[in-house]
Specification:
Chain lengths: 548, 548
């Protein structure tokens, strides 16, 4: 297929470029008036109470895709991590396009669709490992790589204007324990064929050396568990099934029965078994059985490594787990990293465990974790295989993408381009350049409702968090006189300030005739001024008038 | 002096034991009915938006000291860090006791008193380095140690029932660059005399090895600055004056003029000069002068290493500084650690700098920082000098204190005791044991008002942050009939939920007679139920009735 004269190849990140998580990349092909689109990944980001109080899940704003829905050929998922597929179950009802994934990823997605009542409407199209899919002008092939979950894939996109390699999340693990090793031959072959652009994971671009292998952690965990005498709990990311297997094997090797604690643990292990993984995973026992064993005969695989308040580990640390009680002589291994922003809840969890007398072992003091993202040596290898003309760093904050771009230059890549979310990049023809801006942003799952970040509900609540709320109802008669004392609703405001605000509202409204916007604004200002004087903060003040 | 029959020696932490910051330790001596008290340190803790929205400064609840004010002999400050002296300016007006400090610490305190308009009422009593003060039954001596600020002191307290060594914050720095080295002879001598209890810093109890010296960082910073070609900014804790001097000297050595940016930097350097330190600090130039120099001729010493939104560095990163503009080819060195909980604002700062094309150098990738707290080797040395019968870990979260206690046992200490805030420990006579609980907790500086954490204003605001606010005014006539439609105030609530709430309130109140608590509760419940159904969250709902 040769390109038509007006054809362009476009890259447009709507998520995951310039921030952590909620990965969503669009590729467009064709002339401006008849362009076809495909999407790689559709993930969420977990909201932080500080930034977006009351919002647990954040996803990319897909206005651009809605406008181009008729030309959207499909979504291809690289792997099953939440930040790459978690938004499908929320956004697909608006997009209704085919979704392609390898078997394990499809299975995890199916679980999520089931939970949202979408299992009937959307059946993921299963792509066998290493297979191809044709999506209009895009010749898509999934190439096996390694990461920290079964079935991570590099997406190769062949187009008449050049080949794209979109890595997803990856590292080079010579012994990933579960699944195949990286198909470097395929990547090399494509490099020989010619690669226009490498769109690549930046998460660990500032880390020198090689990332390292799950197999090394397996050995270390085996030895570490052997040194422990009491009850042992190990917490890890549930989707890292190689890790779970390592932990379970370490337990069995030292005569411990394995107990899976927490829904996410059990669900992940089941999904892996159903898709043919975890053949070597030891048999497990139920929590009830475990409590009858002596302490040195059990090992608990526990969800909640990030200090999640409702996680099983938090319940154990708080002494609130119905079955499992830890105390002096027992140990908890955190076989995971701290996701930035989770430090305080995780340390709070450590403190609770410490107060119980439990020993805490983490990657700070023991070799119990290895990252799933490419350090500099891994990146060097990837660039050597693929030899792209253009490097576009994605999957990371600006500090990561910036370091990645700097590093790619040292590897001899001709062009590097940082395109934060919403920047439309023309990859070909001509040099890569940002040619347009697409609507982008964030959607908040606020309670059960999807709202645009721009609607400002979370922002308004953050303001409430800072200085509370004052609502004033002014009740007037038909002649514009006050028919009753003003009614005040105040929340989150210290008593001294409350009194000052109430006085100010009374004073300003007292004896006033004529309501209207002017009086409302006068009352509002007086209340805020009084709060500022008495308290040093200005709450949000809303004034309503009503006529009786 | 020999102890009377009923005399007891008491230790009571009101802050700093089981959490970071706001250090305040009480020592009591005498029979229960005539006990005298002294306090070591009186610090603040910086509130986090997540936990206590709208509260920047938190300090210990001093109800216990207010109840015993007549017997409070004084406050002794170990050093000038905010978490050891920051609360004096807020709490002293309630305590009105003498405050003792060495010259630099007294000078920093005086600055704070000046800002709060207390300079006339409280004049700190200056204790020369290495001197003694007699406080009733307590023979107090300040012994020089090393930390990350000028004039850190160990407080030795001699009592008829035994000697106490209270370390404050410390590490062992063989070459602290500013001030004296640790007076180990004095500590050893007291060890020979006999030490009942060592109350000791736990912050780095989980870190193996020695903490290391400021002198090593000086050399490394010198070399690093020499490799940089463009503008250089270095951010560090302003109170680490040895570090500031190292940075300034590194700049001068490479032909750069030094510019102090930010009020805290200038204030600290001035305070140090006024008390005889920083003799070797290079002369500085003003921001205005610096901008006329070529990039490689200036070095900016900038406050705001923790990503403080109003810090000078944040303004530079946002491109909002009136004088200083950084860009490609320039570099920022973070000669500091990340205080846990500050990761996100600091990374946001990095991202902004990266977006400007600025190179970022941190302790992750270069040797630009050393801690001020004792690692295991430092602790081992201290225990060897002091040889206490009892070890009481303080200054740290439970996870730190717990590790410290475990480690002290391995050093052969006979008794270790963890006493979180509010636990009253009898140190003598008899074995150390918790004998009582004193009122304890936290005070919030909420705006300009000191409120008790228990009053729940910050907690209420945190709830507002989660699910917003609904205020309902029901207006009734004299016969208990609705005289107008209900008036609603809603904030932080998505539109769909607002409509559902308004409908529910109308439905429930419509045509109702009789107001009273029952109707209010019915309306409240209906509003929350409607929100839950439409939105999945239950806002705070307040209902008021008014009669016209």
């Amino acid at each position: 297929m040769t390109p038509s004269r007006d054809d362009e190849l476009i890259f447009l990140p709507l998520g995951g470029a310039g921030e952590i998580g909620m990965n969503l990349s669009c590729y467009g092909y064709g002339p401006p008036d008849a362009r076809k689109w495909m999407v790689v990944d559709c993930g969420i980001f977990f909201g932080r109470e500080t930034d977006t109080p009351g919002v647990d899940i954040i996803m990319p704003d897909i206005r651009f895709l809605l406008e181009n829905r008729a030309d959207l050929l499909g979504i291809v998922l690289t792997h099953a991590h939440e930040d790459h597929l978690g938004a499908v179950a929320y956004l697909w009802p608006h997009l209704k396009c085919p979704v392609y994934a390898t078997p394990f990823t499809a299975r995890i997605l199916a679980n999520k669709l089931e939970e949202r009542g979408l299992a009937e409407q959307l059946r993921p199209r299963i792509v066998p490992l290493g297979s191809s899919v044709s999506l209009g002008p895009f010749g898509v092939k999934l190439v096996t790589i390694t990461h920290s979950i079964p079935e991570p894939n590099v997406v190769i996109i062949r187009t008449p204007l050049g080949n794209v390699v979109h890595t997803g999340d990856w590292k080079l693990d010579p012994d990933p324990l579960i699944g195949e090793i990286t198909n470097d031959a395929e990547l090399c072959k494509l490099g020989d064929e010619g690669v226009l652009v490498l769109v690549c994971d930046s998460t660990n671009a500032h880390v020198s050396g090689e990332t390292g292998s799950e197999a090394d952690v397996r050995k270390s965990l085996h030895d570490l568990v052997g040194t422990l005498k009491g009850r042992v709990a190990v917490t890890a990311f549930a989707s890292n099934l190689a890790r779970l297997e390592s932990i379970a094997r370490a337990g069995r090797a030292h005569g411990r029965e394995i107990v899976l604690v927490g829904r996410s643990m059990r669900q992940m292990v089941q999904a892996a078994r159903d898709t043919g993984y975890l053949k070597g995973f030891p048999s497990t026992i139920e929590e009830e059985e475990s409590v009858r064993l002596p302490p040195h005969r059990s090992l608990y695989l526990v969800a909640g490594s990030q200090g999640e308040a409702r996680g099983a580990l938090s319940r154990i640390a708080a002494g609130e787990h119905p079955m499992i009680a830890f105390g002096p002589g027992d140990a908890v291994i955190f076989s995971s990293r701290i996701i930035p922003g989770n430090e305080l809840p995780i340390f709070a969890l450590h403190n609770k465990l410490a107060a119980l007398g439990v020993e805490i072992l983490t990657e700070q003091d023991h070799f119990v974790h290895v990252s799933g993202h490419p350090a500099k040596e891994d990146l060097t290898q990837m660039y050597a295989w693929v030899r792209p003309r253009i490097a576009i760093p994605v999957h990371g904050e600006m500090r990561h993408m910036s370091e990645h771009a700097r590093f790619a230059k040292t590897l001899g890549v001709a062009e590097t381009l940082i395109a934060p979310n919403g920047n439309m990049v023309r990859l070909a023809p001509g040099p890569a350049s940002i040619v347009d801006e697409a609507p982008s942003g964030r959607l908040h799952l606020d309670g059960q409702i999807l709202v645009s970040e721009g609607d400002g509900f979370a922002r308004a609540r953050r303001s409430l968090g800072f200085a509370g709320f004052v609502g004033v109802t002014l009740i007037m008669d038909g002649k514009g006189r006050m028919a009753a004392d003003p009614v005040l609703h105040m929340e989150g405001i210290p008593d001294q300030a409350r009194e000052a605000i109430a006085d100010a509202v009374s004073r300003v409204s007292n004896g006033k005739r004529r309501g209207g916007e002017e009086l409302k604004e006068e009352v509002r200002r007086a209340a805020r001024r009084a709060a500022q004087d008495a308290w040093g903060k200005k709450p949000i003040v809303r004034v309503e008038t009503v006529e009786v």
